[in-house]
Every structure is written in structure tokens, then in C-alpha cells.
Amino acid sequence: MKTVALTGELRSDLGSKYSRAMRNEGKVPCVLYGGGDHIHFFVYAPDFKALVYTPNTYKVQLTIEGKKYMAILHDMQFHPVNESILHADFLAVDEKNPITVSIPVTVEGNSPGVRAGGKLIQKIQRLKIKGLIKDIPDSIVINIDGLELGQSTKVKNVEVPNIQILDNKDNAVVSIKMTRNVVKEEVAAKK
């Protein structure tokens, strides 16, 4: 997993009144869980750009008042109208304990079903996985070189070393569907 660095400052005043004042100053109230005591801090809103507005999942190197913490972004709250970040929760990561994250799925290869006129449909964009932080990949790659028309790759067919996939095993990740043109060609060929 790639790492993004964020620098935060401790906040002493807690509560909605102080959080609202922080947001008006361009700061995002945050909490770090999982390392014993909760650490309340803030990060400037533009610093979240590389972490939030991307399809990737990152480890976060938090520096709060000179102390370093390894974490993952666990949850975010957005304003319902202007979609600005209201609050962020981080989860401290321990090298020895498994974590659960959602990882993007990428498709590679050249399917014979697509070459025959079928349409590639990626039904799952992200898979929920569990494993040690050192074993978590940047993305899960699905190879479609063997998929013919009407075939699909299911979650149970996806293997990632030292990682447990938590999604339903019978869900299709990618499928090759017949298009109307292919169906018309098959009907015309049978006549």
C-alpha cells in the first residue's frame, strides 16, 4: 500500500461549537482511534485532497505535534449540500493485527468474448479485504484473458496471497455480456 503523509495539530476544545469554528477556518476536526487513548486533532482541509478524492486506498503517516502514527482513513463525514469534509476518523494500524479495508479492482487482459463483440461489465469496483498491513496490495488485479461470451469471474475465483476477501463469494466481479448485435448475428447465422 502506498502512503500519504498528513500533519495535524492537537485540539483542546471539543464539541460542535468549536468544530464549527474550525471548519470556518478551513480546518477539519479529526480523531485517531485504536492506539489506546483517542487523539483529537485537526488537519487543514486542502491536505485531504491526495487522500480522499482518489479511487485508491492509502496508509496515512500522521504527524501530530511531532509524534508519528501509522493509520488508515476509517470514516469521513461530508456536508450534505456543498460536500466539504466535516469530520474524519482515523484508525491506528498495528503491524501484527489484521485490518479491514476496501481496495480498488483493476481489470487487465484481452478477453476473447470482448473480441467477439461482447461487452465487459465490471460489477464490483472495490473489494472488502482483511489482512496484515504489509500484505495489502494497492489494487486487486483481475485478468480477463480467458473469459468468453456469457462468462464471469466471481469473488471466489479471486486469490490474493495472505488476504481474506470478505465480499460474498458468489458475486460476479467482471462479466462478458452479449450485446444486441452479437445476438442478431447469431440469429441471422442460424437462418
Present the secondary structure layout.
Elements (H helix, E strand, L loop, with lengths): L2 E8 L5 H9 L2 E7 L5 E6 L4 H4 L6 E6 L2 E12 L6 E8 L6 E10 L3 H4 L3 E4 L3 E6 L8 E4 L8 E3 L9 E2 L6 E6 L2 H11 L1
Parallel strand pairs: 1-4, 2-6, 7-10
Antiparallel strand pairs: 1-3, 2-3, 4-5, 5-6, 7-9, 8-13, 9-12, 11-13
Explain this structure.
- By secondary structure, this protein is mostly beta strands.
- The protein has two domains: about 5-90, Ribosomal Protein L25, Chain P (Beta Barrel), CATH 2.40.240; about 100-185, Beta Complex (RNA Polymerase Alpha Subunit, Chain A, domain 2), CATH 2.170.120.
- It has helices spanning about 15-25, 50, 110-115, 180-190, and strands at about 5-10, 25-35, 40-45, 60-65, 65-80, 85-90, 100-110, 120, 125-130, 140-145, 150-155, 165, 170-175.
- The strands form three sheets. Strands 1-3-2-6-5-4 form a six-stranded mixed barrel.
- The protein is elongated and about 80 Å long.
Task: Please give a quick description of this structure.
The protein is mainly beta and 191 residues long. It is 15% helix and 43% strand. The protein is elongated and about 80 Å long.
CATH fold field value of the largest domain: Ribosomal Protein L25, Chain P
Main sheet strand line-up: 1-3-2-6-5-4
Give the domain tally: 2
Mean pLDDT: 85
| CATH homolog superfamily of the largest domain | Ribosomal Protein L25, Chain P
| Main beta-sheet annotation | 6 strands, mixed, barrel
- What is the N-to-C order of secondary-structure elements (H for helix, E for strand)? EHEEHEEEEHEEEEEEH
Shape: elongated
CATH architecture of the largest domain: Beta Barrel
- Count the DSSP helices: 4
Q: What is the quaternary state of this protein? A: single chain
Q: Span from first to last CA?
A: 55 Å
